[in-house]
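To whoever is covering the structure queue this week,

Two jobs came back overnight. Logging them here so there's a record in the thread.

Job A:
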Amino acid sequence: MTTIMPDARRAGTTTPSRRWTGPVLWASFLAVAVASAFQALRRPGYDRLADLQVYLGAIDAVRHGQPLYDYAAANGDPFTYPPFALLVLWPAGWLTEPAARVVWLAATVLAVAALAMAGAVRWPGRVPGRRRVLAALIALVLIVSAPVQSDLRMGQVSLFVVLLTLVDALELVPPRWRGLLVGIAGAIKLTPLLFVPYYWVSGRRRDAARALAGFAGASLIGLLVLPGDSLRYWLSAVFTTSRIGDLASLGNQSVQGMLIRAGLPLRALPLVWLVLVALICAVALWRAGGLARAGRRTEAGVLIGCATVAASPVSWTHHQVWTVLAAMLLIGGGRPVRRTAGAFLLVAMILSVGNVAAWLIPGSTAVFLFDNARALGAVAVCCAGFGAAATAVRARPDTAPIGGAGKVARSPWAAAVAVAATLVVGAAIFTVMPLPARSDPALRAYTQADFDAGRLPSGDQQGFTCPADSCDDLTFGGQLPLNYSVGYDGSTSSITGAVDPERIARLVYLAAPGAAQFTVPVFQYSDHRWGFALQATTSWYAHLRGYDRQGRLVISTGGKFQT
């Protein structure tokens, strides 16, 4: 007589609660997706799927014979990808802009679902019969994360690039085609090319060769169809990272962006950045190679994806999908330490923890750390990996001999508590350490001598020297002791304004939440009128504060400067 064990019976049946888990998760995913798409379509015209506007405008410009890399959208954004990317995007130009927006948002939502299903197929661990539920859960987490929300809001191509790369890295394509998707993705956006050395060190050398061939072939197509634009891109535009945007913005969570915000002198930035990136990529390749040889290809591929986020000169929020996947892998890693780290990282990838920190612990270096939590998280994944990287997976014993006399039980939760305590203590230490005043490397305050010599930021001198009866933009509205205006020339911000010297004795500028106060000189620009002028890499996260003669705060911007 055969006895059926309870576990075996349970394996062959599905409880009603489990039967509904998948549909409920997918319904939640769809609800969030529809709401997010609706919000994206309701944004102001100039900011409604802004990157898609760039793609469509570039297609139209090239169609009318204009050079691709001379094009700039109404908001000043240029086309920054290789010419082959424009050819891939070309069908979008066949649609009207409203239709293109709807189709693009629908395709982005489908790409999120496809990415989740691809990840679930190769997700580490034993989840027999639960792949569909896992896929739904991954999709729901992705759709609420900041990177995917940014993809939807901006109309970005990044998510499709991640999908192509992940499907290839997880070997979900026939063997003879493996590597080609990475090559094509690299011809659209260069960062996936880091998967070529990963394939090589993990033993997938034919895949590495096919990836290079795919990249070369796609780039050759771009050269044949758009020869002038291709030569310009590969010989000059690719090296001009300033075209991509304000690299000091908190949206840029790359190592370079973090170094710029830390106030590293610009003359030292290239060397320091190159050394750090080389070390991070070397460690990531070593760890990923070990994971791949141990059969842990999902973790290896996501680790290399995080390395592309850390190493790229610019990694906007919509580039950081890899870090969300890494957080979920850590949470599903089984060990409390990994789950704790994954939970911290996932919170950072969903919420703007820097804003919370600035409110709780203003004026400290801890705010800087929280502002750069996503960059630091990507670097930590590259360096720490997902556990044993150079050896095969093996069960960890529950006990270990101590001094040869007996065994002492190890508590996995003790390690998690130790990690959490270390993070808390570290944050507490940084809380009492102020940021350097010049956390913005381009920060410059202009003096009376600069004004007299006509050295104010471009366009501001004329405003300050206007006749007294036409300086309405620099006079006071109502009872305000401070008025200002903000300009942006594509690389730096300029802030000019007027102050009431009877009410404001000291004016200070904070380059970012948590930065130390930087004293701003005030100069006389006309009879009985006093003003100031600043130049900064970015003013989006800055604050301006005025104090009276008793040191009391009279006025603060209380929020973000906007151009």
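Job B:
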Amino acid sequence: MARKQEQFAIRKNLKAGELDAEADEQLMQACFYDKGDIDLLADVEDPKAVIAGRTGSGKTALLLRLQRQAEHASMLDPHDVSVRFLENSNIIQFLNELGIKLDLFYRVLWRHVLTVELVKLRYELKSESDSRGFWNSIKAWAGKDQAKKKALDYFSEWGDRFWINTDEHLKELTKKFSKDVQANLKANGEALDLSANGARRLSEETRTELKQRASEAVNKIQIQKLDQVVQLLGDYAFRDRQKRYYILIDKLDEDWADTQTRLQFIRALIEEIKYFRNIGQIKIIIALRVDLLQIIFDKTRGSGFQQEKYESLICSLRWGEGEIKALIEKRLNKIFEDQYTGRSLSFSDIFPSPKKGGGQKPEDYIIERTLFRPRDALQYVNECFELAADRGGISWRVIRGAEAVYSRKRMNSLKEEWEEIYPNLIDTLEVLRGLKSSFTRSDLNEDRIESVAEVVCGSGSSDPCVACMDRFYSPDSKIKQFDLVYELIACFYRIGAIGIKVSSLDTFSWSHIDQPYIGKSEVKRSNQLKIHKMLHRELEIKDS
């Protein structure tokens, strides 16, 4: 149907949606596009419980949708599971400095937190009186069974305090753990400085002895009691097969703890997700950026670690071009129906027709400048609305004008998304400025790289590209220029800034569509590289 511009005008501040799922919840719920992930996640018998996707791929939207449609669901904010006090604890710092693995301790913390959240959800505990009522009701579960009585001992340690907030629970558990470890370390009566500095001052002999004793103390953590608690809950509290209970956890990739502590804590949570599958009527579901998930596995793996054993847990969130088109169409229908006369308008009513002679459709133009994520497409459409305010539709001139703002924002979004791994990303992307859209490795010549190196070298940055530049330009350098070029190409490919064509017979490979990483052999064999169109305007890329 042809657009009749006189029938409507694009109002100022009109948006196809907010870029943050929580701020956009009302429209998101009305226009939710189900790719089949909801049923998969809601199925308590299906192991998929870790939603892994890049920023803007809809992880939070999935959790919010599941929370809304489930009869029994609770959203747990990791900021309420604050572990800052762990990082500031002298005894924890002492153990970390000794190199003691605290995996078991972190799992105990999560097991307790998740047990409490499940009990609160199941029995609707919101106050001290609710907690006392729950405690009275469970005493009958044990009977004469000694194992069950031990489980009740754990409940009795908390008495009517099950309703207190998560943060207080963790602090009390940590205090008890610290007291037990200190008692074990001071068994011989010697005075010890139980801090990170104290550990650094220890002689090698004392350090070895204390490390052994500290390991013994950690291994004595009473996780068995919690095992019995979970079994008791499975037998009595969660045996109604008609009811499902969900604990949903989002925002794990935010700054709620120091990086290393956060990685260890999330890894412990993933282990507990596997453990709680012993109770068939509950499911713990978390959302993680796919790059953070890989960092967790890389930084916390021990001997014998096999990543493939976790694949059954992971629900990879990827979008196809057609799915994004359908989502945008659904949103446009809704916002124009709500804001105008009740008439729904489609994409073709608002955006221009393809140019004559078989030209590109506007929706294809927009989507090929995204990483196939809803947030990217919404951002571009919003920029178009901003420029077209008070007009009766969007023209090709508006689309291209909006691209300049969109391209700059995409560059900044990449910086924010990858800052933890590539803190100097904005600087290193300058290597690409002014190149042709298709280029070869030889175009990343020494002059281009050196102009960036002059800005970033010597900064002590943890950015792998900057660290490689530091090594390359050091007086005693032992690395070749190819090593530096590879580091840059591997980074740009991983974040989605470039695609790679390994041979003339292949198509271009992109991290958001194909394999997420590339190796040195692929870079050596690369026939051509291509800069993603989302960055063309911001980096002044020339059409090939």
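Note for Job B: The longest helix spans residues 396-418.

Please reply-all if you pick these up so we don't duplicate work.
Q.
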